[in-house]
Amino acid sequence: MAAAKGRAPASSDEALEKHRDNNVRRLLVAATRSINRHITLKLQQRGYEGTRPGHAALLANLDFHGNSVTEIAERAHISKQAMAHLAVELEDMGLITRAPSDADGRMLMLRFTRSGKALVRASVAIVDEFEAALAAKIGQRSLAALKRGLAAIIERD
User: Fold this and answer.
1) What is the pTM assigned to this prediction?
2) CB atoms < 10 A from the CB of 136, how many?
3) E strands along 24-146, which residues?
4) Crossing angle of the two packed helices 140-156 and 114-138, in degrees rounded to 10
């Protein structure tokens, strides 16, 4: 029996779904979410109770010298409104400050507080621990190859 017009047969749907579940994009998205959840859990265990995976959009894109909300939102590929909301949350937690730019008072600048810089140091240590555990599981060469592959993807952008 032929498939209905416009629809692939069920077996093709199953094959496509299996292929789709194993493509690089989905694996990268799932891996990023998994790593962010792991980092958040470990940060919470280290005393940063209010952190959540969504905060990574701001925290991972804010430089120590400070950046505008617009710049961080562009880096994170989210709206300025969503970034501003995250900024309020993180300021309330004492991790960042928000202040008008010295160069342009209309621009809102974000900077890490001392506590925010400590959180970044803790995050880096957690990622280092994660990488060591991953290297123990897949091997140092495979981890190095993974990093080269990810860097190659980023260079395409």
Assistant:
1) 0.81
2) 10
3) 67-68, 96-100, 108-112
4) 120
Q: How far, in Å, are 31, 52, 57 from residue 94 at the CA level?
A: 29, 15, 17
Q: Which own/partner contact pairs does 78-85 have at CB distance under 8 Å and 24+ positions apart?
A: 82/57, 83/57, 83/58, 84/108
Strands of the sheet with 96-100, listed across from one edge: 67-68, 108-112, 96-100
The structure tokens 């991972």 sit at 60
C-alpha gyration radius of the chain? 20
Domains of the chain, each with CATH number or no CATH: 27-156 (1.10.10.10)
AA letter at 151: A
- Measured CA to CA, the distance from residue 12 to residue 10 in angstroms comes to 5
Pull the structure tokens for residue 88.
Answer: 């309020």
| pLDDT, tens only, 42-94 | 999 999 999 999 999 999 999 999 999 999 999 999 999 999 999 999 999 99
How many CB atoms neighbour CB 113 within 10 A?
A: 15
Residue length of the chain: 157
